Amino acid sequence: MTRIFAKGFADLEHEVAVESLPIAGAIPTWLEGALLRTAPAKFDLGRQTVNHWFDGLAMLHRFAFADGNVAYANRFIRSANYREQQRSGRLSRGEFASDPCHTLFGRVLSRFWAKPTDNCNVSINAFGQSLVALTETTLPVRFDPETLETLGHYDYGPRVGGQISIAHPHHDAARRCQFSYVVEFGRRSRYRLFRVADEDGTETVVADLPVDQPAYMHSFAMTERYLVLAEFPLVVSPLRLIFSGKPFIRNYRWDPQRGLRFQIVEKDSGRRIVTAVTEAVFAFHHVNAYEREDELVLDLVAYPDPAIIDHLYLSRLRTGEPFDAVGSLCRYVIPLGPTKSGVRKHQITTTAVELPRIDYGRTAGRAYRVVWGTGNHEPGNFLDSLVWIDVETGQCAVWAEPGCYPGEPVFVAAPGANDEGEGVLLSVVLDGQRDTSFLLVLDASRMAEIARAECPHVIPFGFHGNFFPTENGGRSLRNLHR
Ligand code: CO
Predict the structure, then answer these.
(1) Number of structural domains in the chain
(2) Residue 337 counted as domain residue
(3) CA of 264 to the centre of ligand 1 (A)
(4) Residue 17: which CATH number?
(5) What is the reported pLDDT for 471?
(6) Distance 165 CA to ligand 1 centre (A)
(7) If you measure from the C-alpha of residue 437 to the centroid of ligand 1, how many angstroms do you get, rounded to a whole number?
(8) pLDDT per residue over 432-454, tens digit each?
(9) pTM
């Protein structure tokens, strides 16, 4: 039996702009700004269907809040990828797990660094004063937050270089910059950590870390003083990446003997202060990290191995096969000082969680209590709930409704909030029984519904977005929190 979550992996072709969505309940009037999200929205390209959820063509979604009203618009990113696909009905560039249909000539041209993908379907953020959609190459796309119009590429400067990057930079409010990194493949490959100033977009290299076989990392961790790379042992030989002719991720090899390696780099000096190795796991998402006396605490959503990647192929998701790859919230404690003790690990809760979010403005890089995420309420089902977890006690609260599949919950702090988690969660939910999606507004501390706004169509499942507050009626990017 096909489960109804398969509806979240159907194509969405229509682009609309609706001034006012039907609302049940009352949207808080203090909520002023826009939730901007990117998501794969088209998998069937005419003459080719992509292989994996991560490969669909990127579409932007905008929910704008003012005076209790919600406006909605959606628009494909007019990336080079999009334009080429419109002409040929096929991919023209290598994606995460799909390649263009090969001719010998095409194979050479589609190598990801010769012609990297700009299909930015993973997340939304800001570099300097540019609002960007991101994927895992060094080709973010700039867009207009009002019209969703594509403005062109955001160019990483020559000092940053690299071919692969991440869609999860970290904003440092004290230093007024974003931190991120690239992987540069070459005779000597390296991870290059860098920062981008909020003020004017100036890029500064923080550290260069040589690496023989780069790991696949989807995010990294940040504390007040440090950046932490968690190198999962899903690694690639640079030569294999060049010559194998396989889609990007299929060149990576799981080598658990290597273990999980934490590299801790001081933000201000670029000095690598600790390298610590522990038992292998795989993860996409870090949750948060902070310093505690002479230790570093780091939370992430762990899987025993990278089989989760295989579970996200469209051939499985679209037939609604039971989904049983769920992540567990784990805490690592890494000694910072001169000590013989190793890395300690424990599981915070058995409650499944993915697409984790925190009260970023208040707690990023600091001691914290609350994580929200999508959950897995019914075994075998896809992500079918939203969860609130206290990372100190493991206590959980859940929001779920039959036939409903919520996406990443984005937290927005209430004005003048005194406590962590005081505000609302915004989540795009597929209602599989009613064949539509709605934007859910939850009280973030009670996980109770405040309102929902009904969308004009099913919004295909996506990954990440962010809320950008309106300031003085403008579209300032200040107060930007991941
Ligand atoms: Co992600």
Answers:
(1) 1
(2) yes
(3) 21
(4) 2.130.10
(5) 72
(6) 12
(7) 21
(8) 999 999 999 999 999 999 999 99
(9) 0.95
